[in-house]
Write a structure and sequence with these properties.
The chain is of the alpha/beta class and about 350 residues long. It is built from ten helices and 17 strands. Helix content is about 20%, strand content about 25%. It is globular.
Length: about 350
């Protein structure tokens, strides 16, 4: 299938229009017309080569919402016209213990990412959702509940599941005391989801400038991390901290905020951190952990949870040709919402 998207052609050039071919339908494939695609900080890191060299040209995008336009002969779950979604992965080995446990993101043989991974059958590099169409194996396609606004649902496929999964893993519920470091694309979803689970949520930020915004999302307050007196007073006051900061940073100011047996879970930064001090960990049986998206079943669960609780990401709709400007804002770290590309804007290319 011939399609068009926006691709990075190197680590130091802007994304530009790119005509390419999607694979022909396999028996278990679903062909999707993409309606909306979220812009994730991971897209920026990947195309910039921050996480290693890439096989260019590369079409980013792993927060995908669209409609089915064709199905392979063995597909049973979807029909033409169905609203569907695709997240951060499009395949896995399906044979290891993690795949059998519904944790395909931890596949022992490596998941196949929505873009930038070798296809398990053809070996060609997968291309993502900054495009008009995508073809995906049925088992990695998700149902979009009819009550969700398709134009705003896309970021649930990454920002939503990335924060939902650790909240579920650490059994967050009524009475849980949750801190959220950062209030960007990931952080604002962490707040909304934790509040819906019944937790008391505090945003941890370098300044109080987003206090009104944090409270509008349901947070109890903001804890200003640069205020040493306030931070000291907040010692041992959280059961779980979701750390969404997407750059190298120092965990040492935050670990004393955890109560005994508390955990700080890293979901933002992939790579180096400042050297942690062991004293607060050892003397409080505190933990530093990490979490990577979620499995297909859990991703469906978060879509259903958001529909049930009327949770939608805070979105700014952009045209496809505005994506490079969006990247510049992401690099500056001044985005407290999620950019979503309206793929109808590609018709003009």
């Amino acid at each position: 299938m011939k399609t068009i998207g926006y691709a990075a052609h190197s680590a130091d050039t802007e994304l530009a229009p790119y005509h390419f071919e999607r694979r022909n339908l396999r028996a278990n494939d679903v062909s999707i017309e993409i309606l909306y695609c979220g812009v994730c900080h991971s897209d920026l890191h990947t195309v910039n080569g921050d996480w290693g060299p890439q096989d260019y040209p590369l079409v980013p995008g792993h927060e995908i919402v669209g409609r089915v336009i064709d199905v392979g002969q063995d597909v049973t779950k979807y029909a033409v016209g169905d609203p569907v979604a695709v997240g951060c992965m499009v395949d896995s080995c399906q044979e290891c213990d993690q795949c059998h446990n519904g944790e395909e993101q931890y596949c022992r043989h490596g998941m196949t990412a929505t873009y930038g991974s070798p296809d398990r059958i053809s070996g060609e590099t997968t291309q993502g959702g900054y495009a008009k169409h995508i073809v995906v194996r049925e088992g990695f396609v998700l149902k979009v509940p009819t009550t969700l606004d398709l134009a705003k649902a896309a970021p649930i496929l990454c920002a939503g599941i990335t924060t939902y999964s650790p909240l579920r893993t650490w059994n967050v519920g009524p009475g849980s005391r949750i801190g959220v470091i950062g209030l960007g694309g990931l952080g604002h979803m962490a707040v909304k989801l934790a509040v819906a689970m019944g937790a008391t949520v505090t945003v941890i930020s370098r300044s109080a400038s987003k206090q009104r915004y944090a409270k509008s999302l349901g947070a109890q307050d903001i804890l200003v991390s640069t205020d040493t007196t306030t931070m000291a007073q907040a010692a041992a006051s959280f059961d779980l901290i979701i750390d969404t900061a997407p750059v190298k940073h120092d965990l040492n100011p935050y670990t004393p905020l955890l109560d005994i047996d508390g955990s700080i879970v890293i979901v933002g930064q992939i790579g180096a951190l400042e050297e942690p001090q062991s004293f607060p960990l050892v003397f409080g049986r505190r933990r530093i952990a990490g979490s990577l998206i979620g499995g297909i079943a859990e991703t469906q669960e978060v879509l259903n949870f958001c529909a049930e609780h009327n949770i939608l990401p805070e979105c700014e709709m952009i045209r496809m040709d505005q994506v490079n400007d969006a990247y510049k804002h992401l690099e500056q770290g001044d985005v407290a919402h999620r950019y979503v590309i309206d793929m109808a804007s590609l018709n003009a290319q």
